[in-house]
Design goal:
The protein is mostly helical and 221 residues long. The protein folds into two domains: 11-73, Winged helix-like DNA-binding domain superfamily/Winged helix DNA-binding domain (Arc Repressor Mutant, subunit A); 78-216, Four Helix Bundle (Hemerythrin (Met), subunit A) (Up-down Bundle). 69% of the residues lie in helices and 4% in strands. It is built from ten helices and two strands; from the N terminus they run αααββααααααα. The protein has a two-stranded antiparallel ribbon. Helix 5 runs antiparallel to helix 9. It is globular and about 50 Å long.
Length: 221
Amino acid sequence: MPPAPHSGLSLPAQVANELREAIIAGRLLPGTALAEVELAAAYSTSRNTLREALHQLSREGLASYVRNKGVEVRRLGVAEVRDLFKVRRTLELQALRSGAPLREEQAARMADAMDAAELAQGREDWRAFGTHSLRFHQCIVSLLASPLFDQFFANIAAQLRLAFAMAPDEERFQRPWVQRDRHLHALLGAEQPHEAAYAMANYLDDSERLLLELLSTRPSP
């Protein structure tokens, strides 16, 4: 199917957006081949357009060119995961400390993400659970009211989704977070930004520690 239209974006950028969203949704996993012919047909576009979109994903750290194999969804290492959490601490903690009031539509989007995560948890669909949890954290960054930060964090969310997918026991990694997301949401709703930032700092420390622990047990590809 052709990419959904995005006002002001070139066709390669639109295709790149669709592929990035597929990564965030967990439909494209680390190591998945990104074959030009099949993807050009799937998105009803030319191979040149698709190639430009793949170049963009490569620049964003979401795709890699592998010798004698072509392009594939990127596999992240420990150093990249640590760097992603540095970015999360910078943006998410700043968003909470800003004290920006939680607008009704932001609160609704957060609640929708948490409800969807709990439904995925009930189905034991931990891949979907991780995607909805990331949607919740994208809402937190949106408190900064910066379209540029929102766009940047969409790329960070996609890379985090790849890191989550590489954990050999994704259930063990994902299970703790929905109640802690609920707690953050409650603190924001109660207009307690400093308490929310403190809870988020602990959250991110625990999340990074557990993810790195699980990645250390992953067999070599």
